[in-house]
Write a structure and sequence with these properties.
Layout lengths: L3 H13 L3 E11 L4 E8 L2 E6 L19 E10 L4 E5 L1 H16 L4 E9 L2 E6 L2 E6 L10 H4 L5 E9 L5 E5 L19 E10 L2 E7 L2 E5 L12 E10 L4 E10 L2
Parallel strand pairs: 3-5
Antiparallel strand pairs: 1-2, 1-4, 2-3, 4-5, 6-7, 6-9, 7-8, 9-10, 11-12, 11-14, 12-13, 14-15
């Protein structure tokens, strides 16, 4: 039987939208719900969080890493018949995310921890909220984050934009740049230079060939071009008065 005193406590928490904390005791597949769950022990009362209610974005990996972790959650339903509390970690994450967006939109500068390095940048964690920073928003030149940063490194960031699908994009408050001789004055048509793909659009791509110089080119029809790819690039046009360079990708570099 469920302890009525305990249940009333969690009914009040549900009513008030109180954020609670608890330790994940086990993970298992729930046959009736046909999904994996996290299970918590709340003062002798079973509480579960389904896979869909773990995070804002779908969690597709194993839930085993959650075992033993103290997590924040909210009670969303009390099933007296099954004697279980239905909880949501996702609801807390959504509240934290909304609060963080307001702070960033107000111009706040925050520390972000690198959670995962990617070819085109990195996922970062800002006080439990996930954001994305692209290489071009980290460095002025063609340096990638993976070249000089590691997972768990801290960088200072500010908001760049919120995408149409709600993703948070941030940029470094001070962009990285290595000393270099590469600049607009030395570029001429027919030169072949090293570059890094910065952005790919249906109508063309931008390739970084020097600090703050992203050259425009057509997307090669023979390869699947992706951000972060190293390439050799042939310059076909230089407009120094406008700071613009055009050209074409000759080869994708794999090493």
């Amino acid at each position: 039987m469920m302890n009525e005193t305990v249940i009333k406590k969690y009914e009040e928490a549900q009513k008030n939208g109180t954020v609670l904390t608890g330790i994940v005791r086990l993970v298992q597949h729930h046959a009736l719900l046909d999904t994996d769950i996290l299970m918590l022990d709340l003062e002798g009362t079973k509480a579960i969080i389904t896979r869909d209610d773990i995070d804002v974005r779908p969690v597709t990996t194993s839930l085993v890493n959650f075992v033993g972790k103290r997590i924040k959650f909210m009670v969303v339903e009390i099933d007296r018949e099954a004697e279980v509390l239905i909880c949501s970690r996702k609801a807390v994450k959504e509240l934290e995310r909304e609060a963080m967006i307001k702070r960033l939109e107000a111009g706040e500068i925050v520390n972000a921890k690198i959670a995962k390095l990617l070819n085109f940048g990195a996922y970062v964690d800002i006080e439990g909220v996930t954001a994305l920073i692209r290489n071009q928003d980290f460095a002025e030149d063609y340096t990638t984050m993976a070249e000089i940063k590691q997972v768990a490194d801290i960088i200072e960031v500010k908001l760049r934009k919120i995408s149409a699908n709600g993703r948070i994009f941030v940029e470094a408050t001070t962009k990285f740049s290595q000393p270099t001789v590469m600049n607009l004055e030395i570029f001429e048509p027919n030169q072949v230079v090293f570059g890094v793909v910065r952005n790919v659009k249906p109508w063309g791509a931008y390739v970084c060939i020097a600090p703050n110089i992203d050259a425009l080119c057509p997307v090669p029809g023979t390869v699947d071009l992706e951000e972060g790819m190293n390439v050799t690039f042939r310059i076909t046009q230089v407009k120094k008065e406008e700071g613009r360079v055009r050209g074409k990708i000759i080869k994708i570099l794999t090493e």
